[in-house]
Write a structure and sequence with these properties.
This protein is of the alpha+beta class and 118 residues long. Helix content is 25%, strand content 20%. The chain has one domain. The chain is flat, with a radius of gyration of 21 Å.
Length: 118
Amino acid sequence: MTSLAIEVPTSCLVKDDTHPIIAGWTTASMRQARVLNPTATFKNPSREGGPWVQVSRLGMPLVNEIVIGIKDKDKFNGSEPKNDGQFADYVTNPSLPILVELVYGATGALAADRVSSR
């Protein structure tokens, strides 16, 4: 795990008192290509090359793991926060409650929207 700590005066980070939100996000990237090293060693099992490609992003814990649907996980991981509008349907219509009901429905667990309609 790597940590990066920066101390910066708040006045340098916020536009004004009406928008005092400070946020951050990180990405992880890998080389575009990886092949097995024909003369592999423990230290160098593969050879990598090509441009760096974003494969993961973090900023809001568990968003990708719980909120974003399986078919769009790679798309989300390769995107930037400024383009998050394309994933709004996952936030407004989350699949987790439905999955909980599928797994635990026999015990009486219901998705939130079905509980309120009883």
